[in-house]
Amino acid sequence: MLMIYGLIAIGFLVVVILAYYFSEGKCDLKKAKEEFEIFGLSDGFVPQGFCYAKSLNCFLMSGYMGNHKSASRICVIDAETKKLIKFVYVKQDYKKLSSHFGGITSFGADVWISSEGEVLRLKIEDIKNAKNEGSVSVFDSFMSQNGSDFCFVHSGLLWIGEFYKLGKFNTNIAHHIKINNKIHNHAMCYGFKISSQNLGGVEKLVPEKALSVPDMVQGICVFGNKLYVSTSYGISKSSLSVYENVLNKPEDSHTYFGNKKIPLYILTREKLIHKYVLPSMSEEIEAYSERVFVLFESAAKKYRIFTRRKTKEIFSFSVHNIK
């Protein structure tokens, strides 16, 4: 009898595993366009950040290595051919960095990497001149006073955002905003005014504005009157949420950065226009050529045992399909 129960239990487990791996369920990726492969996966690269650098006419993809020992890297990809030009390492104080490199963005002559509470500034010209597998030195850096997990540029501001997941990735309680009795936003983005000649490439180390965002945000980009948010954690489905661009509207409230009172904008369900359901592990996103590009980390060697779908390509959605 015990053997029969054991066989039933094993059979049930097999059914559950097969259902998990082969029954993906609802997914809106079929509405997207496959753009190009995610480079470096076979080397153990774990992609995190993604942006378009106009002055190079290239995409930049940042990330860390799955062994957490090898140097993190930036992939430089031709925006026209979608081919990898090179990848470079980043040095700070003459040492190659192996940190998370969670976000990357560019404006003018500068590139910023958001990573583990710090914002690193690089120079576009240094990336352009670096050889394949060469190194680029950090020009300068600053602490953003939040998690510094992702970043984007909008209307002359460098936005640095943070990721929140209860229990594992907590944030400063001062960043928690009550939406109603059941819903709270637990993460804060800070918008710093860009000024290339100053420390960190920002006018001052106090933000001009703040944006309260939902939990588990991996990346944000803006196109026109819409704000796009990539949300994911672990093996659960990801989402690409489309909101009204609250940054182009009057502020919802205010918050404090130290002793300074600054305008606060809040993302809420009432401002949500549409939500795409995506495979697990979406990362940073970027608006380029009237499309929103979505990066995934699920095909990294680090996750190959656990992920149902290993998304090895960057996909994009047309900004015109959302009314």
What does this entry show, briefly?
With 323 residues, the protein is mainly beta. The protein has helices at residues 2-22, 124-129; strands at residues 33-37, 45-53, 58-65, 73-78, 84-92, 95-96, 103-107, 110-115, 118-123, 135-137, 140-143, 150-154, 157-161, 177-178, 184-185, 187-193, 209-213, 217-223, 226-231, 238-244, 253-257, 260-266, 272-278, 282-288, 291-296, 313-318. Strand 24 (282-288) and strand 25 (291-296) form a beta hairpin.
Number of separate helices: 2
SS strand fraction: over 45%
The H/E string reads: HEEEEEEEEEHEEEEEEEEEEEEEEEEE
**Unreliable stretches covering 5 or more consecutive residues:** 5-23
Mean pLDDT: 93
Cα distance spanning the termini: 61 Å
Overall geometry comes to: globular
Class per helix and strand makeup: mainly beta
* Backbone CA Rg: 20 Å
Question: Approximately how much helix is present in the residues?
Answer: under 10%
Task: Report the strand count.
Answer: 26
Q: What's the story with the biggest beta sheet?
A: 6 strands, mixed
Description of the structure:
With 323 residues, this protein is mostly beta strands. Helices cover 8% and strands 46% of the residues. The protein has two helices and 26 strands. It has helices spanning 2-22, 124-129; strands at 33-37, 45-53, 58-65, 73-78, 84-92, 95-96, 103-107, 110-115, 118-123, 135-137, 140-143, 150-154, 157-161, 177-178, 184-185, 187-193, 209-213, 217-223, 226-231, 238-244, 253-257, 260-266, 272-278, 282-288, 291-296, 313-318. The strands form six sheets. Strands 2, 3, 4, 5, 6 and 10 form a six-stranded mixed sheet that branches. A six-stranded mixed sheet has the order 12-13-16-17-22-21, with no helix packed on it. Strands 1-26-25-24 form a four-stranded antiparallel sheet, with no helix packed on it. Strand 14 (177-178) and strand 15 form a beta hairpin.
